[in-house]
Amino acid sequence: MALQRNTLTLQSDALALPWDALALQSDALTLQRDALALQRDALTLQRDALICSLPLGILISVLALCKCKTKNTLSKRIMNEQLELNEYKQQIADLYSRRGETYDEGDWHPRIAHRLVEHAHISQGQHVLDIATGTGMVAIEAAQLVGFAGRVVGVDISTGMLEQAKRKIEALGLNNIEFVLADAEKLNFPDNSFDVVLCSSALIWMADIPKTLRLWHQLLKPGGLIGFHAFADTAFVGGVTVQKVAQKYGVSLALSKPTGTIEKCYDLLKTAGFEPIEIKSEQDGSYIRLDSLEQAKGMWFGGSHPVPGQFPNPMKQLSSGQLEEVKAEFEAELATLVTEQGIWNDVTIFYTFGRKPIA
Description:
This protein is of the alpha/beta class. It has helices at residues 2-53, 56-65, 87-99, 108-120, 137-146, 159-172, 209-219, 237-247, 262-271, 293-297, 320-335, and strands at 127-131, 151-156, 177-181, 194-199, 220-231, 277-282, 285-288, 343-346, 349-355. Helix 4 packs parallel to helix 5 (137-146) and helix 8 crosses helix 11 (320-335).
């Protein structure tokens, strides 16, 4: 009996050996798989370290060549949607869509957009909202500064402008930027979403500037920065001259007046809850040459042109005869401003910044 029992035990052990061998093989395969996963993670870390060490210009070129599944997923969210605008906003959107193809010509718009970004001291990893982004001048520069860890959203009501902006980011291969067709006075981003909110050359187009600034205040994280251009009430000789002549006919045009002094800019930010506030005044401008007097006369706008912050255009209250009289006086007034160099077109700019307090 003992011999039979020993024989059965040996047979059982012999049958178990193949299973034990298979278990060992399985464990070995698991270890190999884990080792490969570790190698893959190490290669990923090496790749990320290499990418982060590249100069910005080379980095952009590398990104442009990447065929990642996520390429341009942010930038593709826009423009086939319909945006419901009131008549005032639709006039502005149409005006700037017509200007979209030529908006980047010349150096003035790019230069003051760059100065706004420069004053904002944007850093890597920040989330930036660019209001009235236009062709994306501010947004694109900001996206290059915030890097992979950051994010930029540009909003505008003009499809023509956004189409130009989208072409530019596709050419650059930027993936950390998104353009959204949206009204800057009706944004629905969550509160405390952004580190920086910027608005280049567009604040005076807002129908209700104090209310709009309060909305943008909500969108900023505590300690976040708002920055915008404001133009002195002496800026843009065409508008100043129309204001002067129209006043004789009982028509008041606001134009740059709501933000036309440092004190007005300060009060707007203070009332909206920003503190501290810093405003830097920089004189800009150029001469309109004598042989370009017709160009200066082209700065006239009658009742059909949208007027910043006022709807309908106050000039519409004048009869056609009165409009002709105002235009004739406008051109005569310009003629009195002619010097040997031409007509000086002052564009004094207030670079205005404020912070959302940390509660």
